[in-house]
Amino acid sequence: MTAPAGEAAHTRVRRFNTADTYPEQSLSNDLAQAVVAEGTVYLRGQIGQDLDTRESVGVGDVAAQTERAMTNIALLLAECGSRPEEIVKITVYLTDVRHRETVYRTMGRWLAGVHYVSTGLVVSALARPEWLVEIDATAVIPRERRAEAESERLRHAQERGEAL
Q1: Which of 41, 75, 43, 79 is nearest to 155 (CA)?
Q2: What is the pTM of this model?
Q3: Averaged in consecutive runs of 10 residues, what is the pLDDT profile of the chain (164 residues)?
Q4: CA angle (158, 79, 130) in 5-degree steps
Q5: In Å, how far are 87, 131, 142 from 61, measured between CA atoms?
Q6: Which of 5, 6, 31, 8 is closest to 18 using CA atoms?
């Protein structure tokens, strides 16, 4: 299915450039925290970082970082017109396998009864050394709520002063 003439096939939410996020690195890539395409919401991996200030949260505390990542996921889903219970897939990146139980216990409080699919990976590092966990998610917006979701995206974008 293609978008009607004049409409984008997808919407990019909370656009940013990596030069602003990682000023210590020589990067300049245009990204978004979320992309909505044909009723599917794709979220960028979320970490222990405040979405507005870009400050790291919970340095050294994997439970606090997971809590912030899940808070960010819930916030981004709301801004896209979706909900945590509409998550279908999560990928979890851990820098230490010993963090697994804490991370999954924290996620479980947020996602009880959702029955999503999940992939967990242990990696040598994330983009910043203080980040211990990264969680990305994919969710859906039911067809009957897509018009309402589009209105929500526009409202949230206007509140942030962002054009979609």
Answers
A1: 79
A2: 0.90
A3: 54 87 81 94 97 94 98 96 97 98 98 98 95 98 91 89 82
A4: 110
A5: 25, 9, 36
A6: 31
Tell me if 32 sits within 8 A of 51, measured CB to CB. Answer: no
Q: What span, in angstroms and rounded, lies between the C-alpha atoms of 137 and 42?
A: 6
The C-alpha atoms of residue 137 and residue 43 are separated, in whole angstroms, by: 5
Q: What is the pLDDT of residue 75?
A: 96
Chain-centroid distance of CA 110 in Å reads: 14
Cα separation, 107 vs 41, whole angstroms: 19
| pLDDT at residue 41, rounded to an integer | 98
Contacts (Cβ under 8 Å, ≥6 apart) of 54:
20, 21
- In angstroms, the CA 137 to CA 46 distance is 9
Contact 81, 73 (CB under 8 A): no
> Token digits for 117?
């699919």
